[in-house]
Amino acid sequence: MSTTTTTESAKGSAAGPPQTKSGKSVPPDQRSWRLRLNRADIKGTPYALVAPYFLLFMVFGLFPMAYTMYASLHTWKIGVPGREFVGLQNYSFLLFEYERFGWSIVNTLGMFAMATVPQLICALMVANALNKRLKRQMFWRMLVLAPIVTSVVAVGVIFARIWGQEYGMINGFLELIGLDAVNWQAGRFSSWFAISSMVDWRWMGYNSLIFLAAMQTIPRQLYEAATVDGASQRQQFWSITIPQLKPVIIFTAFISSVGGMMLFVEPMMFDAGRLSGGSDGQFQTTSMVLVDILRTHGNYGVSAAAGWLLFLVIGLVAAVNFLIVNRISGSK
Amino acid sequence: MKVALAAAAAGSIALTSACSGGGDDDGMTEDGKIQLTVSLFGTFGYTEAELESAYEAEHENVDVVFEGDGANWDTEVRPALDTALDTGSGAGDVVGVEEQAAVELFSNSAVWTDLSALGHDDKAENYVDWKWDIGHNPDGNLVGFGTDVGGMGMCYRTDLFEEAGLPTDRAEVAAAWADWDGFQDVAQTFVDSGIEASFLDGPTQLQNMILGQTAGAGDGELYVDAEGNLTLDSAATTTAVQTVLDLHEIGAIGPYVSWSEEWIAAQAQGGYAVMPCPGWMTGVIETNSGEENAGKWDMAAAPGVAGNWGGAWLGVPASSPHPEEAAELAAWLTAPEQQVKVFEAVGNFPSSPAAQADPAVADATNPYFSDAPTGQIIGASVQDFPALEYGTLHTPVKGAVEGVLNGLIDGTYSADDVWDAMQSEAENAVELSGGGL
């Protein structure tokens, strides 16, 4: 963007002055008009070029947010005429009366922690492996991407079967080695575990590809110098790769935490498309509560309030995340 | 630079107009035909019975489009329909409305075309009485034509019954569970035999069935009354939940949550022996169980009085640009001849007395279900069924109750906790969906 602007303005200023220097008399009012156009060009063009994004953001980002804020402060239900201003009542209902909401935040955070940390560590390992000289390098790289292009609904169905109580593969193995079958859906931790496996399977490849791209920008000389100094592969990984990847690690941690906080499809598909997340909301995430209130109950007001609360939680998690990641990768 | 500006401006205009497109829809196709969009869910059987070409052959100026085959009513279609009716656009010309939402959706006269004003008030004899009644809203407008009715039988696995030492003949089975006490005795025998399968699939379908039966035979009260007050102490609710508790105590209820992957797998693997069977369920079982289990399933008359589960209506939203043509199409789709065709194609049981009496329906047997006379069993169950009025809050409260019952089976709740949990979950549902908040 900035390069376009400078070349544009350079051209503009080059085309302007020679005419006035050529000796031909240009009427002063015309000259100032050109000058003003020129100046508008220099100052205005960058804004015009970035305008589409901001216009779209206003229409599809800012306006919905403001409207959600408006909805969250009113009673507003499908089929019930009239909206009434109720202040923070919708928020206080969610925070203090509706237990499922509080639990949904616990569930979301729990599944986020259970899924994201191993996922990023695995992604780093896989990226490191893919960064080595391998036969059929392209094949392996495509392979880690395969889960991303798989339909999430199909993934949900398959995983629901893998973790099924009576006919599930995992329980089949457990029984084979003499352990009792587990009803994965019934317990809080067990259901989080099953869903985390689904999330990791889907997103590990994506993150490792980002890491891989970043690893390839690390100058070879660093490794060569380290090898000359007698550093082992392991030392090189921790002392060169990780510090060099710091910005990318922060980026993936940030993206994963936002994605993790908005976890929706995987737990929904784990329960045959239901929004209640198990018999007692064992794995009902905040996004599911939000959509459940909207769809099952047709309540725009409370659903909008849930949306804003989720927004706050995501902001908080992202901030904490940033601090932690910054500290960890900074100390290396 | 001017080019750049113009391009940017054009780009953003193109984007915004692309997103707001379709505002000038006049409901006509490019070659000048009237386009009628029929928005459905689940299996209405219209596509399977090839009704689109049949109707278009009779009406050359009409182009019929069926949408939503296989979609889930509660999670996909209903929310979209709510929004479309609320905003007055995008609902389609003819829409299918599911039984448990019919009273609620139809009650808002403003969003539906009054079909009696279009001359369709003379079609009462095409439908059983209660089906016709619910098609009228409290303002007296005719807003929906009935399609199928659920009817009720009980499907069971003859191979598992034989293994458990129970009778396998459908007349003997029906006699053994003529009432719900008998049903519990059969369950007890099955459990005592110690075979490795559950007696019943799960708690929710049975609960739903007994709820409808008891309410239909009694005061009609379900979970919530018309004013939105919880009636979890109604005869229907207590009977239904208590039966589930009793059966659970003897270990007769399986852990298969309806429509879950495990539930589907169990139908093929013989994971349970019995499940409530509305007419349309036979198709579901046949698909899930597959060829290798043909002849292992059978159907017997269900315990207790008649019952109903499922069935739908077709209404014409007020926003349709062609209400007259849409109403005519809806009437035609639900006319006796078409109901027979649909039954033959997918097994949805007709709501029209004439169609029910048609030999193609009345004498129908289902080869997959050991040649059970499904037409006769289902037909007998819907003959004198009284209309159930599912109130506006029925669906959300039903979700709360079913969640707790599933929790009873998976061990989240003990039998003693069930009523308290149901009460608090249902109160939340009423507060969110009803007059509160």
TrEMBL record, chain A:
Keywords, comma-separated and alphabetical: Cell membrane, Membrane, Transmembrane, Transmembrane helix, Transport
Superkingdom classification of source: Bacteria
Keyword Iron: no
Residue ranges, annotated region (Disordered): 1-29
Cellular component, GO, one term: plasma membrane
Location of the protein in the cell: Cell membrane
Matching Pfam families: BPD_transp_1
Keyword Transport listed: yes
Polar residues: bias regions: 1-10
The ABC transmembrane type-1 domain, residue ranges: 105-321
Membrane-traversing stretches: 44-67, 101-127, 139-163, 203-223, 244-265, 305-325
Protein topology in the membrane: Multi-pass membrane protein
GO biological process terms, semicolon-separated: transmembrane transport
UniProt family annotation: Belongs to the binding-protein-dependent transport system permease family.
Name the UniProt record assigns to this protein: Sugar ABC transporter permease
Source species of the chain: Glycomyces buryatensis
